[in-house]
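Sequence only, no structure available. Ideas?
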Amino acid sequence: MNFLLIQSLKSPSEKLLSEVFGKNKKIILNNRLNLFVSENNINDCFFEDKDIAGYVMGYARSYLLNSSDSINHNLFTGKEISNKKWPLNDDFTGSFSMLTYCKKSQQISISNDCIGYHPIYYFIKNDELIISSSLILTGAILGESTDEIGVTEKLISGEFCTFGKRTTVNNVSSLLPGEAIFINYSNFFEIDNKYDNTLYNGIIDKSTKSIAEDVSALLSKEIDICLLNKNTSVAVSGGLDSRIILGHLPSSKKVNCVTYGDSDFYETKIAKKCAKKINGNFSSYGIYEYEFPSKKILKDYILKTEATGLQCWVPIIEGVKKTYFNEPFLIGDISDSLTGKHYDFIKGRMSKIYVFLKYTILFRKIPFKLNTNEAFNNWKKEKSDFYISKLKNLNYDFNLETAKISLQNDLNEIFERISAHNVKYYEQLNELFSVYTHARFPMAKQLIITKKKFLPQAPIMSLGMMRFSTKINPNEKILFKLLDEILNLDKMKKFSNIPTAQIPFIPYKFSRIIKLPIWAIRSLFDQILIKRQMRLKNPKARNRLLKSINWVEAYNQKDGLKNISDYFENDFLGLRERCMKTFNMRSQMKSWPLSTIDLISMAAMNIEQELISELKDLK
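Reply:
I predicted one. Tokens follow.
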């Protein structure tokens, strides 16, 4: 699932393309413009007829078509976008980024849905045009240097993301969420930008049960049109997201369920029970081997996917013995669009208990604040001040004043996208900001990384689902109220009898009056056991009430220290000392290793620059 569109004197060599794409195909669009596409997923991603050619990452569908051929849907949707009918109306759906080229007008368009989980990068300058799914390939062709502001933003964001159009390669930009760019190729690259501003378009005030029924009907419809009669693989867990996917799959489909974690982990056992409910095949894969893999393995994943960070997906990909490039791989709700998780007043354990006792148990509605101009401006200032203060404390070589100006400009691009939507409540501002940062970058990586062997798709985060879910009254989402009601529907009851990893021992269908105290007790015991393990300095000591991932063990795998040292063999970004110190502190249990995401993300940033430097010689 990779492409490159290029008009440049710096045309890439076949060796360079093979390094990044593997086997690839060249499509000559005109005497100066060439499109290169990976042969992986080519039947579902590349499309062409006498009028247009294009490429889609993810999937794009139209309800107007009675077709089970993804190419027909891609062509129909691509022509709609090429004709500048943006945003797409409700006859279309999907979770996608797309490139189109109109053969008659020579107009190029690049677009992504209202979130934009699949990145598209572009460079337009003078007589040069490069558009690609790969930042590394783009940087190598151009020979551009590192964008230090982009690196700085990744280090302070808390999500290892950049803001706005910024990337970590100078002069290379990425599409904004919901953006479509139309490039008039025949008129000196004249550019027109349009935006999808259709999220939060009103508030649905219906009963929770009625909303749950609507969500369920829509999700079934979305999954059907996503799969187009194909069998599928599904990432399952001990939580709710994946079982909601499982409950809405067509009953006639063959389903391969996979999860990460040892077979005796409580969460793995829960995932297996969920898979059994649909008679799906089930496989689990231990995670520790690939938390700090050899540099060769990590480098290959960075080059082929640019989506490393959440390493727990690697053992699944490595463990699967064959490729499934033509079979959809479905994943749960990484945007948290149905959960209401990202309202600030329910972030911590105590705040959730407080909201439950004050509002939920007494059937009161939470008094959300209206999003006025004054409130929005105050919110923007608080966000800006927060990140600028992190700049001041960052131990990295950069010009503070230049960084502050650039950071504010980049944040403003995100603020403008948020402002363009009709966000009714103040608390929803953080929800949308989280979608544009947390969901769109680190969480999306767990979808994108699977393209190494699968065809990753996300119907629960489709255009149709996101437009609907953002209209749901936030009171219906708080503390999983809506998800509880969805699990009570007839088609989901077989899953509601199964506990979750977070609320163990009892069926999930039990009342929240019972579930919340059990969750709180389980969480409290976990904290006590973690502190005990740290005090004992014993990597093998029990650190969870129920057997689960032991992050200390991940930091004490054979060759872990050597591998992280190898990642920074060429210290392009000056992060070696920081990462080595953090690794040693965690492996020696002087600080708690919550996960490996931060170290792997910084290693990936460094290796990306290393790859760009190495691949420049192949161009």
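The longest strand covers residues 52-62.
Hope that gets you unstuck.
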